[in-house]
Amino acid sequence: MNKGDWILFYTDSDQYEYAAKVAEKEHNPDLGDAIRTDILNLENNGDRDWDFLLILESPISISISGHKLAELLDYGNYYPVRFIRVTESRMQHLRKEYESVNEFIYKIRTDTT
C-alpha cells in the first residue's frame, strides 16, 4: 500500500459499499503490537503484518457487487477473505474498461455531488 492507493470495503451481501484513498502510511511496530495485544487480545506471535498504520482520507460511498468486481479483475472468488492486493496484470483488465483506477472509482461512486 502506498499513498494515493484506493481501498474498497466489502460489507457482505455481495457488495462493496465504501472506498477510501490512503493519505499516509506509517511504520509503527509498537502501535501494532499494542493494538494486537492490548485492544484485540491476540497473541504476539512475531507476525509483523501489524507494523504499518494506514491513514485514510474520508471514505466515499460506492456500489459494485462482488461478482462484478471479480469478473472485472478475473478472480474466481466473489468476496474477499482478507486484504487483497490487485496485481498489475489484473489492473490491466480494469484499465481496459475504465482507463484508470480513479475513473473506475468515479463510475461506481454513488454520491457524485
Search tags:
113 residues; 4-stranded antiparallel sheet; EVE domain-containing protein; alpha+beta; 4 helices
The Cα radius of gyration reads 16 Å
Overall structural class, as computed from helix and strand content, comes to alpha+beta
So how many helices? 4
Helical content stands at 25-40%
Query: Major β-sheet, in short?
Result: 4 strands, antiparallel
Shape: elongated
Rounded average pLDDT: 87
N to C succession of SSEs: EEHEEHHH
What number of domains? 1
C-alpha termini separation: 28 Å
Strand content: 25-35%
Topology:
Layout: E1 6-10, E2 15-27, H1 29-39, E3 52-56, E4 60-65, H2 66-73, H3 88-98, H4 101-108
Antiparallel strand pairs: 1-2, 2-3, 2-4
Helix pairs in contact: 3-4
Keywords: Plasmid
Protein name: EVE domain-containing protein
Organism: Halosegnis rubeus
